[in-house]
Amino acid sequence: MDAIINWYNDLMSNEIWFYLIHTLLKLVLMFAVILAFVVLSVWIERRVAGWIQDRPGPNRAGLPLFLLQRWGSKEKQPLKNWLQFFGIPETCWIARLCTWLRLDREIPCWGLIQPCLDGGKLFLKQETTPSYVRKFYFILAPMLVLGPPMVAAAVIPFASEVNTCYGHISMCVANLDIGPLWIFAISGLSVYGLTLAGWSSNSKFPFLGGLRATAQLISYEVSMGLSIIPLLMMFGTLNLQQIVQFQADNGWTLLPLWGEGLSWQRWAMMLPLGISFIIFVTCVFAEANRTPFDMAECETDLVAGYHAEYSSMKFASFFMGEYAAMVIGSAVVVTLFLGGWSIGFGADAALSAYSDWLAVLCQLCMFIVKLLAFIFFFVWVRWTLPRFRWDQVMKLGWLYFLEITVANIFLAAAVLYFIK
Amino acid sequence: MFETSLCQILFYVLAALAVLCAAGVVGYRNPVNSAMCMAVCFAMVAAIFFGMGAQFLGIVQLIVYAGAILVLFLFVVMMLDIHNESKSRGSLVHAAICLLIAGFFAGIISWVSISLPGAKDNTCPAITLCESAGELLIGDAHQVKEAPAAAPQYGGCLPELNAAAAARMENPSISDADAAKATSIPDVKLLGKCLYTHYNIPFVILGFALLSGTVGAVALARKIRKD
Lengths: 420, 227
Description:
Helix content of chain B: over 70%
Oligomer: heterodimer
Number of helices of chain A: 18
Strand content of chain B: under 5%
Radius of gyration of chain A: 25 Å
């Protein structure tokens, strides 16, 4: 036992091994959380859509109990045994209620199993690759859509920093000094996936869809990059961990209620920052290729857009890529505008004075809550607003957003310069 | 040193891939293949920048070249749908002209890299260049003094402070891309300071050149439509 502890101590005391181990752990955690959130956001999307359209949505699928038998359980009907255990007769109202809730057949999870079953269904579907496609790029394209959002997530901080006896851990996978730029650059690479999917399908509508997606993504990337410059002028750094720390100390970008956030300057900055927020969020919608900006897969003009020729898991990769982009987009908005992991009102400093790990745990929960709230907002917008027309999308991007963002930079500079 | 050796291995792998892809750009007959090779080549160069500690340059390389310009390339190539693969091979004169142009560019690049200070005694040319021309480059002398003097072999981990200045000397085309993204992390700060103080006038002139190009493109595109 002592040997194991000594070995562990030696291993963790080595700087490189310590770095490798904690980075790997964070990497696995991040990846798992993102994938879980992709599944979860599919479910949220369908449930919220159902709620908005006044229908139930997928609320049934639970863990079926026949799985227990498969896994070696001899008990055929857990509900009956359960009722017997408590001495409840099988004909009384509790038993009937349980049967009505399908408790005799499955463990209910509010339909949470639905996306998993959908995934399983997509795995089992027949994979058809049309004979006329350009095969290499046809196979490469879905990977290029799904991969970048996962890589872009590396710089998003999900909790603050911890000092352990072996060293300092910053709770994001890669604490780069160019956080937002990294996200823009890497998620911008998914354009290749859409373009190549459209082109390699070698058919009319996917090609048009791919071209539309490319044009839209490039157009909105410009405004997206420019719109956060007022924020960066205020933060004075591009490191996302420091940006969130700043917000934890001095008030969230959109809620400056404590620390230095109560100054005149910060409240005057609310105007340019509010404009930034609206434009940035709209650009995130456009980048995630979702309604009202889903021109690339607009059914009425383009059948299914760039993925019309795809089936089975290749289609699912596009589908998951879209949701991964949505999750990452939400995470970026939360990090830049809504305080990231910070609990707010000075609670972060108090908690970390008490215990670092407790603070990290609370902050992680806070981040996830904020993320879920923003994903809900994302879905809400999708099922509320109708789709734009193509010329409206381009006009909005180039004629309004670009000009407004440039003017906004000057406005922010003026506020920072004149109001002290 | 673990880090240095890893960086060097990575540098050689990435550089080899970049060169391979660059050869692919020229070698492939299908223009889409060429464009994709070019994208990978840009990505590899960006990764090399990252390895040198010049994160900002790497990311700008990705955003501007791989993310925007090359996608437009691909766009145009796909729209035109050129079937170059079916063409027969060019004549001898054609090959000779190609060789001449390629040789010309190769000559320029090798001449520049050989005439860099420190290139011959196997120290990193970029670092020695920075040390000799540090004041001219960065503007404050004290920042150069802070940089560690020990210069690892080319491809090793450059000290972060010098990395930006060094890499900029290798890639002067960075100026226009940097315009929108001037903020204040160390290498970004250095770049911005240098760009907006020492090279301010060339920078503004470049900006006007780009603007006139944009206006010209709009004018040309407008002319086609008669309605």
